[in-house]
Amino acid sequence: VQLQASGGGLVQAGDSLTLSCRASGFTFGSYHMAWFRQAPGKEREFVAGITVWSGSRRDYSDSVKGRFTISRDNAKNTIYLQMNSLKSEDTAVYYCASTAKYSTAWGAQGMDYWGEGTLVTVSS
Fold first, then answer.
1. What is the Cα–Cα distance from 62 to 98, expressed in whole angstroms?
2. Residue 78: which of 3, 9, 16 has the closest Cα?
3. What is the pLDDT of residues 101-118, one digit of tens each?
4. What is the DSSP string of 8-60?
5. Which among 55, 52, 61, 45 is positioned nearest to 79, based on CA atoms?
6. SS3 for 117?
7. SS3 115
8. DSSP string covering 53-90, please?
9. Residue 100 contacts by C-beta under 8 Å, 6 or more apart in sequence?
10. 13-46: per-residue pLDDT in tens?
């Protein structure tokens, strides 16, 4: 199983950035997918999640709602996180994760697989 995140970098406040996460080694179309992030000195937190169901329900944390958009391409086994209007407080290592069992809480402990993170730094 592998979740390979990419797309991180250094941007200025107000800029946009798109993260990608390519999955392999499991049946991607059967797993709900999510992005988490961890800022220095803070706990890992949920950012956005997308389900496998028809219509692909999307959930977002309050801190990113309206600015970030999660999407998935099942043909490419890939999820994306479009991040707009970035703020300095969005600076963190971003991780993609997957779970076979949906929960509205999207708790980190409920994730089955994790990828390596990609660092996003937003300068103010």
1. 21
2. 3
3. 999 889 999 999 999 999
4. -EEEETT--EEEEEEEESS-GGGSEEEEEEE-TTS--EEEEEE-SSTT--EEE
5. 52
6. coil
7. coil
8. STT--EEE-TTTTTTEEEEEETTTTEEEEEE-S--GGG
9. 30, 31, 32, 112
10. 999 999 999 999 999 999 999 999 999 999 999 9
Question: 76, 11 in Cβ contact below 8 A?
Answer: no
Q: By C-alpha distance, which of 105, 81, 112 is closest to 18?
A: 81
Cα gap 58→118, rounded to integer Å: 21
Q: Which of 118, 30, 16, 22 is nearest to 69 (CA)?
A: 16
The token pair that represents 87 in the structure block? 């703020």
> Is the distance from CB of 82 to CB of 68 less than 8 angstroms?
yes
